[in-house]
Automatic annotation (TrEMBL):
This is Pyrroline-5-carboxylate reductase dimerisation domain-containing protein. Residues 4-94 form the Pyrroline-5-carboxylate reductase catalytic N-terminal domain. HAMAP family: P5C_reductase (MF_01925). Signal peptide: none annotated.
Length: 264
């Protein structure tokens, strides 16, 4: 039986996607296949997802998710081209669609994706872009896979650099804000453990309000800001410090670096 999907690379992101697909009912473990060269990772995957076929080599004829480090993509694609695969979804960071298409050859649709690390806990954000041979059915297929671990949007490939700058790198920006809030709470007199617990729950609660409600962020901010109150005093410091411009510059810098890396 041809696997419904094979995953090349059994790292943390590959494992998260496999677990999400099984939990979501997209496939049963025996309908999947993982090609992972590291024996310890194969053992870990087998233990994490009982019944999952795991081996060192890819199989022929299957829809394929490429989840390997960018530097090994060409070698992986050569193997897949020799085997013959139906179509490919790549989550290899920075590797352009043209690279896949040039090695895989004619007749193999390719979709490129940029997920982020919250996919590891099922609340990721991913963008996908279609290659020259990928049609609506291929985008639906890719969306079905990635939506098992979060939200998926469709963009043109050049916009994946901006996606990288915003949501790909975005979790690190939030983690830095969390660090700064903890440090600030401690400086204001709170025990560090207390500051950490409050900062973590505040970020989670604010994100949940934004995600589950209908109000845009500006309205939510206004709702908690009383004229002359404590929140207004804190936000004024953000605005005076050029917070919006700083965030714009941060995303722009990450976007430009993504372009540079993609250009080789």
């Amino acid at each position: 039986m041809t696997a419904k999907l094979q995953v090349i690379g059994g790292g943390k992101m590959g494992e998260a996607l496999l677990g999400g697909l099984v939990a979501d009912g997209w496939a049963t473990p025996d309908e999947l296949h993982v090609a992972e060269p590291d024996a310890s990772r194969r053992d870990a995957l087998s233990a994490a997802i009982p019944g999952l076929p795991v081996g060192p080599d890819p199989v022929a004829g299957a829809d394929t998710l490429v989840a390997v480090k960018p530097d090994v993509v060409p070698a992986v694609c050569e193997i897949l081209a020799d085997l013959g695969v139906a179509r490919v979804l790549s989550i290899a960071a920075g590797v352009r669609l043209a690279t896949f298409e040039s090695i895989l050859g004619d007749g193999v649709p390719v979709v490129r994706a940029m997920p982020n690390t919250p996919s590891l806990v099922g609340v990721g954000a991913a963008a996908i872009a279609a290659g020259s041979l990928a049609g609506p059915d291929d985008l639906d297929w890719a969306t079905g896979i990635l939506s098992a671990v979060g939200t998926v949007v469709v963009v043109d490939e050049p916009l994946l650099d901006a996606v990288t700058g915003l949501s790909g790198s975005g979790p690190a920006y939030v983690f830095l804000l969390a660090e700064a809030l903890v440090d600030a709470g401690e400086a204001a007199g709170l025990p560090r453990e207390t500051a950490a617990a409050l900062a973590e729950q505040t970020l989670l609660g604010a994100a949940t309000l934004l995600h589950q409600g209908d109000d845009p962020p500006a309205t939510l901010r206004q709702n908690v800001t009383s004229k002359g109150g404590t929140t207004a005093a804190g936000l004024a410091v953000f605005e005076e410090g050029g917070f919006r411009d700083l965030v714009r510059d941060v995303v722009a810098a990450a976007t430009e670096r993504s372009r540079e890396l993609g250009a080789g």
